[in-house]
Amino acid sequence: MFRSLSLILIICFSNHVWAEKIKVAVASNFMVPMKAIASEFEKETGHKVVLSFGSSGKIFAQIRYGAPFQLFFSADQAKPIALQQAGNVVAESRFTYAIGTLVLWSTNLGLSELSQDVLVSEAYNKLALANPKLAPYGTAAAQVLDNLKLGDDVKKVYGENIAQTFQYVLTGNADLGFVAKSQLIALGQKSKNAGWEVPQHLHSPIKQDVVLLRRGENSVAAKAFLKYVKSDKIQKMIESYGYQTSSTTEIKN
Hints:
The chain is 41% helix and 19% strand. By secondary structure, it is of the alpha/beta class. It has 2 domains: 2-99 and 206-240, Periplasmic binding protein-like II (D-Maltodextrin-Binding Protein, domain 2), CATH 3.40.190.10; 102-197, 3-Layer(aba) Sandwich (D-Maltodextrin-Binding Protein, domain 2), CATH 3.40.190.10. A 5-stranded mixed β-sheet has the order 2-1-3-10-4. The protein has a 5-stranded mixed β-sheet with strand order 7-6-8-5-9. The longest helix is centred in the N-terminal third of the chain and has 17 residues, at 2-18. The protein is elongated and about 60 Å long.
């Protein structure tokens, strides 16, 4: 009995010693699925994941100025590539973890049947979109407006990130807006008043890349988390939130 108790204490002590705390920066559009992924990872490994959410642009700037993140889940490819070129990323760690879907959405019953025609008609007061200078979903939204020749004519309100943009529409501060499909699924709007999924030909693909930053180069937990995100279980979880992954489409970096 004494030997068994000693073995249990050794195992518990070992788990405590080897458990790590990692700091992970995540684009706002991926907030809900990331919280679920991190929770599962913590249960299965004993590691602790500290999450920070924001626009990809702001996170990028924070990393360049020395923010202590070990992993960066961006809402685009450009910022991870730029960090890679600047020497802030562990070689060959970058991969596309999700491809987002842009949706035109409204809580206004008069606009419940959303379409390109509604957008072009300009029969609304304010259109919300994320700041294109900071958020990739905002960049995609701006491309849609440009392709439909609406860039200068529409009265727009900008969110700092896609989460703030979503709140503008949800609270009615904007009649309609460009949000992420994953946000609607998290809200329970998958089928009811789900909005208009913007065709891919109107904007560049929203490929979202993750990178292992130099601060995480020697972190067992950070590397394990990257591997965990690639697992079939987590890939299916990501898909359930309205994203595409490597298992649903061919992804090229």
